[in-house]
Design brief:
The complex is a heterodimer.
Chain A (H helix, E strand, L loop, with lengths): L1 H12 L12 E2 L6 H4 L4 E2 L3 E6 L5 H15 L4 E5 L4 H9 L5 H6 L3 E5 L7 E3 L6 H14 L3 E5 L3 H5 L3 H17 L3 E7 L17 E10 L2 E11 L8 E7 L2 E4 L15 E2 L4 H6 L5 E2 L3 E6 L5 H14 L4 E5 L4 H9 L6 H5 L3 E5 L7 H15 L3 E5 L10 H17 L3 E7 L19 E10 L2 E11 L9 E6 L2 E6 L1 E3 L2 E3 L1 H82 L1 H6 L1
Parallel strand pairs in A: 3-8, 3-9, 4-5, 4-7, 7-8, 15-19, 15-20, 16-17, 16-18, 18-19
Antiparallel strand pairs in A: 1-2, 9-10, 10-11, 11-12, 13-14, 20-21, 21-22, 22-23, 24-25
Helix pairs in contact in A: 13-14
Chain B lengths: L1 H7 L1 H15 L6 E7 L4 H17 L4 E7 L6 H4 L7 E6 L4 E4 L5 H7 L6
Parallel strand pairs in B: 1-2
Antiparallel strand pairs in B: 1-3, 3-4
The chains are: A alpha/beta, B alpha+beta.
Chain lengths: 585, 118
């Protein structure tokens, strides 16, 4: 019972290489970006062919694969060099921060230099390459290698005349390497019309990576393509890659779906009035903003305001300047009260200035990609993107920007781009054709009226918010950018001193109107006072009349009473006098 | 098992041959040859026999052969940059010459050893 249990357990744990999903087991190379496009790395325990023309970075690729394996993945490696001595190799990669001597001393890497000099060798009869096998086995056993590099085994073809023996021996070698379960990188020189001069691809059929180094209009770009990867899904595009002081970085940006998250959070543009125009709150976080305009319209100032507001929020900001040096930019922005220097010093702002023509577009993209990955900014500013056309064609520049925008959106990084539109072209079109990728598009345009050039700012579009349709006059003052309502009158839009004059006129007119109103109010007041006085007088009159009337009535009543009394008295008297008379009757 | 027995037999024989030649010739003109093999394969045995035949025919007793079995001493392969097996290295006289293969082509072997102008 227990044994059966054990047996079944063993059986369950045994099916080793095909992982649960049924995909090939892979070995991470540690090369930035490559593991993403290969879906995890190179096929484990199998040889991979890395081919390309001279100087495309094959040896470096192989060396980084080994060093990263030894340092980061705990997999010791063997480098069989057919072209360079261990000293030369160590020297070549020291500039990339790889200390080969140290790794060799720690027995993490073993380098064997195999030199085959045809002039010293005479071939007589049957031979095999057991010497190579023995040396390889020794090197593998010395460090317990899991990774092996053969750079480049094609050199053997120059050393031996008997190609038949060589080819069968190579076939045996790759079989043997697979049996040894080492992950192997074999480099090969690109041949005419074939991947490698000696057709190595027919021996190494699991994974083939092609490196390329192209020069277009004096600008070189390195590209990498996975020609085949048996049993695995992989990116099929040409991916640009860069060799810098940290080794190779491959850029897996194309082929992204539109799946990025959208944030509802808003971030200030740094100009309160502009925020007001953008639904009252500013840009969306993670959106892309384009500021276009002709020369000297204040695009950089807009960008600098945004950089400042980003830093003020305590977020990191990456400013890529392609026109000005950092110190010039800082000085110029200080003059409009945008002081970026403190943030640059405390590390929130990273200013990176370079000429666009310094690198190819792809290399630029890789570099931006790397900087963003390392710096993790909340906002990236590219000032300006129009200069990218200088280091490639417009179509290339557009493709590159598309990937850049995609990448930044994916990372939820707010991106601001400035674009210089050349005069004479419609301001609503960009050379780069990127406007459709942009969420918020600001246009700064010169408005020439009355012998003056003034700037007008329009929000051409702003996705997902109720933005203003008004033109604002865009003023760059010593206290920063200010936006003013323009005067729209019968003569059209007025800006600058005309607007000021118009405003002065309006102010005068309104003063007059105010004075008139005041005068009228005073008049009414006076009338009211007069009327009140009249009312009072009439009242008095009335009272007097009433008083008089009262008196008359009283007098009349008194007189009446008196008369009555008199009459009564008279009557009484008459009756007494007429007593005899009455009797006489 | 079969391999190990065959390996043991010719190996001392080779060493004996080398030792005897050393004893026989002590002059400055003696050649130093080193034959690299990997186990006692038919190819290395053939190379051994072919080499001795050629040398005995052209310069008897003026040579010393050291047979290096790389299976036993893999580290030695590095010193003479051995890739192919079998490889015969002429250490002396200089310059160093390498002849690979089982030495079945006597003409080429002689040319390779510079015993005959190519």
């Amino acid at each position: 019972m227990t044994t059966r249990n054990k047996a079944s357990k063993k059986a369950r744990t045994r099916p080793r290489p095909p992982s649960p999903s049924g995909t090939l087991p892979k070995v991470a190379t540690g090369i930035v970006g490559l593991d993403e496009i290969t879906g995890g790395g190179l096929p484990k325990g199998r040889p991979t062919l890395v081919c390309g023309s001279a100087g495309c970075g094959k040896t470096l690729f192989a060396m980084e694969f080994l060093v990263r394996g030894a340092v980061e993945h705990g997999e010791p490696g063997v480098f069989i060099a057919f072209e360079e001595t261990p000293e030369e190799l160590a020297q070549n990669v020291r500039s990339l921060g790889f200390d080969l001597d140290d790794l060799i001393a720690k027995k993490k890497i073993s380098i064997d230099y195999i030199r085959v000099e045809r002039s010293e060798i005479t071939e007589t009869g049957e031979f095999d390459l057991d010497g190579l096998f023995i040396r390889l086995a020794l090197a593998i056993d010395t460090v317990g290698a899991k990774r092996v590099v053969l750079d480049t085994i094609e050199t053997l073809f120059g050393g031996f005349t008997n190609q038949g023996v060589l080819r069968s021996e190579l076939r045996r070698l790759f079989r043997w390497l697979k049996d040894k379960k080492v992950t192997c990188v074999i480099t090969g020189e690109r041949g005419d019309g074939a991947l490698t001069r000696q057709g190595l691809e027919e021996y190494v059929s699991d994974c083939v990576i092609l490196l390329d180094h192209r020069v277009t209009e004096q600008v070189s770009t390195r590209r990498l393509r996975i020609v085949k990867y048996r049993g695995s899904v992989h990116g099929t595009n040409e991916y640009p890659f860069l060799i810098d002081e940290h080794g190779i970085s491959v850029l897996p940006v194309t082929g992204l779906g539109l799946t990025h998250e959208s944030s509802n959070e808003r971030v200030s543009s740094g100009v309160p009035q502009l925020d007001q125009m953008l639904g009252g709150e500013g840009y969306y976080r993670g959106s892309s903003i384009l500021a276009t305009g002709t020369a000297g319209t204040g695009k950089t100032s807009l960008a600098a305001h945004f950089a400042l507001s980003t830093c003020k929020r305590g977020e990191r900001c990456l400013y890529l300047a392609f026109e000005e040096s950092p110190s010039q930019l800082l000085r110029n922005m200080r003059s409009i009260n945008v002081n970026l220097e403190p943030y640059r010093r405390n590390g929130l702002l990273q200013l990176h200035a370079s000429r666009p023509t310094l690198l190819g577009l792809e290399a630029h993209l890789v570099q931006i990609h790397k900087m963003v990955t390392e710096f993790e900014p909340g906002a990236v500013i590219v000032d300006p993107i129009s200069n990218f056309i200088a280091s490639g064609s417009a179509a290339d520049a557009q493709a590159m920007l598309l990937r850049l925008i995609d990448f930044l959106k994916e990372k939820q990084i707010t991106a601001m781009f400035t674009h210089l539109t050349s005069g004479g072209k419609p301001a609503e079109a960009t050379d780069m054709g990127v406007s459709s990728l942009i969420d918020t598009w600001l246009l700064v345009r010169d408005i020439e009226v009355g012998g003056e050039r003034n700037r007008g700012l329009y929000v051409i579009k702003s996705r997902g918010m109720a933005h203003s349709n008004q033109v604002r006059e865009f003023l760059i003052t010593s206290r920063g950018i200010a936006l003013q309502d323009v005067y729209i009158g019968p003569e059209g839009v007025l800006t600058g001193s005309l607007r000021a004059a118009q405003e002065a006129r309006e102010r005068a007119a309104s003063l007059l109107r105010r004075q008139e109103i005041q005068r009228k109010q005073r008049e009414i007041e006076r009338r009211r006072a007069a009327t009140r006085a009249q009312i009072a007088a009439l009242k008095l009159e009335l009272e007097a009349a009433e008083l008089e009337a009262g008196l008359v009535v009283t007098q009349d009543e008194a007189r009446e009473q008196l008369l009555t009394e008199n009459r009564t008295a008279m009557a009484t008297r008459r009756r007494g006098n007429n007593h005899a008379g009455k009797a006489r009757q | 098992m079969k391999k190990s027995t065959t390996a043991r037999r010719p190996s001392p024989a080779g060493k004996k041959a080398a030792g005897s030649s050393q004893r026989a010739v002590k002059g400055d003109s003696k050649w130093e040859l080193r034959l690299y093999v990997a186990g006692q394969t038919p190819k290395s045995l053939a190379a051994m026999n072919n080499l001795r035949r050629v040398l005995d025919a052209h310069m008897p007793d003026q040579y010393r052969i050291e047979v290096v079995d790389l299976l036993a001493n893999p580290r030695l392969a590095k010193e003479d940059q051995i890739v192919a097996i079998p490889t015969l290295v002429r250490k002396l006289p200089s310059p160093v010459r390498k002849i690979i293969g089982d030495l079945s082509d006597t003409e080429r072997t002689l040319v390779g050893l510079q015993l005959r102008p190519g």
